[in-house]
């Protein structure tokens, strides 16, 4: 279909401008989505790092409590209960570090 050499009508010009504007906005939305995804990845990494630190802190606190013994009772804890408590802590630490390496 061959168009004669005449200027665009006002409606055709408006249509072309709207198409161009839509394309620019589409590209801007894609850019915004990429930026947002990058920020979410960064936050996810920070949260995972914080979770690891909290896990280590909890393990350390559990280990210290196991070594000191519980102060909830008036009688001192038996050696068997301390060994069991330390074993639990050791298994937890081993599992956590083993999963970190994978």
Strand/helix succession: HH
**Overall number of strands:** 0
| Main sheet overview | none
Radius of gyration: 32 Å
Number of helices: 2
Mean pLDDT: 78
Structure description:
- With 102 residues, the chain is mainly α.
- It has one domain.
- 80% of the residues lie in helices and 0% in strands.
- The protein is built from two helices and no strands.
- The protein has helices spanning 10-68, 79-101.
- Helix 1 runs antiparallel to helix 2.
- The longest helix is centred in the middle third of the chain and has 59 residues, at 10-68.
- The chain is rod-shaped and about 100 Å long.
- It starts with 9 loop residues before the first helix and ends with a helix.
- The model has no long low-confidence stretch (mean pLDDT 78).
Topology:
Blueprint: H1 10-68, H2 79-101
Helix pairs in contact: 1-2
Nutshell version of this structure?
The protein has helices at residues 10-68, 79-101.
């Amino acid at each position: 279909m061959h168009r004669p050499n005449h200027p665009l009508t006002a409606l055709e010009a408006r249509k072309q401008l709207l198409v161009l504007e839509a394309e620019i906005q589409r590209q801007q939305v894609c850019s915004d989505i990429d930026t947002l995804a990058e920020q979410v990845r960064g936050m996810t990494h920070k949260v995972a790092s914080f979770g690891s630190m909290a896990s280590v802190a909890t393990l350390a606190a559990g280990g210290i409590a196991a070594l000191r013994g519980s102060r909830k009772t008036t009688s001192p804890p038996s050696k068997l209960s301390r060994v069991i408590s330390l074993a639990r802590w050791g298994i937890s630490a081993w599992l956590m570090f083993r999963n970190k390496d994978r």
